[in-house]
């Protein structure tokens, strides 16, 4: 009965997942989908013996840290010959047709992501491996399982028992923009382009992070021993029937003219696509002809990649401006004579940092090449030296902050200069306040960027704590603000003291402490006092907190000015503690645990929750501070070795439950978890 229901839910969820993500044609509402998913998760939790690594419920990922195993490819992952020139492309076609007679080509887009090889056995996803060096790559299966367009179980029943399918893991522009906006708010370095973001995400340690990043996967090549197809086109049509996402943009072309037309079309039309592409791949369709042509050492002779030229324009660099970010980071920005590039007028381009400028020897007055390549923000790629003015001199980078005059500093390992005057530099002060009031932080409505600037200009705010001292009449007399909006703003500020601790912690704007890190810190330490007291080592015991983040936290709390702000926020009633949990017992008081591996009767989150409600502490990594490791299946061998070396006790899930007597979680806590 239950097994049947679980199977039915899995089938339904797979189907609707496919309709939604692959075919873009959902049949049911998100609400209905979520309800089914919840039912499945509940049943799977209650019946761990029916667990399945390919159940649709794994799409949400987990916080098990992946240690990527290196896997040898059964069929090597080759690269492609590249060309930018139509003439070379025509030679490629002629060379082939001379050898084989007229033949069909399949033209496809060249997706600009990161290559992946998926192995299916008996219709189920067995493994996902990155390209690596072409011979062996990293096993990133847990992460790839969260990608909604990768089928975990295939549709139909006419697939080969064992085969590989290759394609590209892509990050659509929409996901890319969202992630970079979040990283910017957290003061983290941005991903330069969707390709880096996709590759970086695949190598993320926690698959739950991957699940949130909105990756996509398009497949373009099957590999296997005896595949039942005579040509590429047919093989991909079948793959589509099995549930894979296959590009809608592929075409069969029968002449050089048709190929040229395909390229010309997509060189323009790709701008409308929601994901990045950097060329067209032209492949011989017929597998017999492919066999006849064979391979070079690195690439097939039956395919070539024609790369689109990044669009370039030549224009004058009028001047260089310097932006100061919330963290004090200085970014040089080129002011350009407006020029048309890839359909938009470009007036500004990033110059990245001093090193980059020196490398290209960029000087105001120069004619410079501007490109919009894979990157979203246009960049300057070179200088037309033949047009350099005779009296030109090398550019001298600024040494003091353009906003406040403070001498700039450089931190080790960072390319950018920083203005260290956090407390007195206008854009930094305003930037921090704007960050604090963001929706994902204190969510203070009615206060936008302009109003914050207005408050600053009128001497009403100098730091985030000043917000809580504001009175409505002070606001009402400012330009553009009436009594009503003043009242609303004050009400919203006062109301923000109810915001949970994790969002307050995010709002403080500690370097590298983004939304997710703040959440983990809050869950682990439960109060600001505990975060402030923690040593570097203790800080890194929280999930996703590494040395760099720990250092930034310590630096933040070492600053007396920050401490003063925190005291005033505390007086205003801002929450510096997580909601108290209803304790079930104190039987684990003073004991620290690490959860490792997979468990049959409880999820990892449940075990963590149980540890905390019995007064124990969860740590992320094995160290001398750990009392017990609760070990499930597949506990990493490195962890095991370390635990044995340190003499940490290793106990099973059952031992652990016996230790606390009952695995019941008070309803109040369970409800809190869901929100
Ligand atoms: S076919 C034997 N088709 O380009 C060749 N590759 O430069 C198998 N790529 O590593 C590759 N879009 O990551 C093929 N439609 C497409 C592609 C594509 C992007 C990437 C792939 C490969 C690289 C080769």
TrEMBL record:
Statement: the UniProt record of this protein carries the keyword Manganese: yes
Enzyme class: ligase
Keywords on record: DNA damage, DNA repair, DNA replication, Ligase, Magnesium, Manganese, Metal-binding, NAD, Zinc
Cofactor: Mg(2+); Mn(2+)
SMART domains: BRCT, HhH1, LIGANc
Catalytic activity: NAD(+) + (deoxyribonucleotide)n-3'-hydroxyl + 5'-phospho-(deoxyribonucleotide)m = (deoxyribonucleotide)n+m + AMP + beta-nicotinamide D-nucleotide
One annotated GO biological process: DNA replication
Binding site for NAD(+): 30-34, 79-80, 108, 131, 168, 283, 307
Keyword Ligase: yes
Residue positions of the active site: 110 (n6-amp-lysine intermediate)
The organism's place on the tree of life at top rank: Bacteria
EC id: 6.5.1.2
Residue ranges annotated for the BRCT domain, each copy included: 583-654
Record: residues binding Zn(2+): 401, 404, 419, 425
UniProt similarity note: Belongs to the NAD-dependent DNA ligase family. LigA subfamily.
NCBIfam families in alphabetical order: dnlj, PRK07956.1
Its biological purpose: DNA ligase that catalyzes the formation of phosphodiester linkages between 5'-phosphoryl and 3'-hydroxyl groups in double-stranded DNA using NAD as a coenzyme and as the energy source for the reaction. It is essential for DNA replication and repair of damaged DNA.
PANTHER family noted in UniProt: CHROMOSOME TRANSMISSION FIDELITY FACTOR 18, DNA LIGASE
Name this protein carries in UniProt: DNA ligase
Gene name as annotated: ligA
